[in-house]
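Sequence in, structure out.
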Amino acid sequence: MPTAVEVKQLTSASVRRHHARRIKHLGHEPFHPVTSLTRTWLVFIDTSHGHATFGSDSQTPALKSLVADLTAELERLERNHQTEREINAGHDLAIRQLTHSWVCSSVPDSPFDPGIIFTDSHGTSRTTDLETDVVHFLGQWLDSDLAANLRASLAAEPWRGIAVLIADSNGPAEGMIRTLQEDDGTPVTPLTLPSEIDVVILIAGNYILDYDAVNGWQRREMKTLRIPPKVS
């Protein structure tokens, strides 16, 4: 039977933009030496707001001047001889404004010189239930404006419509991926498909789930391609 296939990635434009800006402004290395500091500091950059949406309008910390701005605040903490417990328990508002995170601590016996170690952090919302984290999640996405282009593309074709959705951990689909990793079961709840779509193929981590109205859900593990060694 002739088919029309449309592929979409379930990812957060905001988080992808954050990663690009982090490489541009902070580089690839997490550690940044700062000669004006006396300690090595571990600072968390919270991207939870970006991970909560597929769009690009969610606020993530500004990175262009983060090293300079944060250095000034860390110099203040060092001048005041504040301890890690006092900083985090006191919820330093200046640190929070720059990084969206309360977590900022000095590293005891650090092998690094004085400076700043940056690490990203975020929270993930999920229920650990396949029917909610997979079926309900996909149903909401398919019924939203996010899928409008996919549905329009398949509607223009006279053949059987197949939607291939690739879940990316950079965004709301992370919860779905983690639930599939922890639960080896197969969903049973029917997925409500838009009229333009006959089959949904979900690629999430190492797993592939297929759904159509006749066969319901099918689940299989993605096989790793093994290339035999070259014989000389």
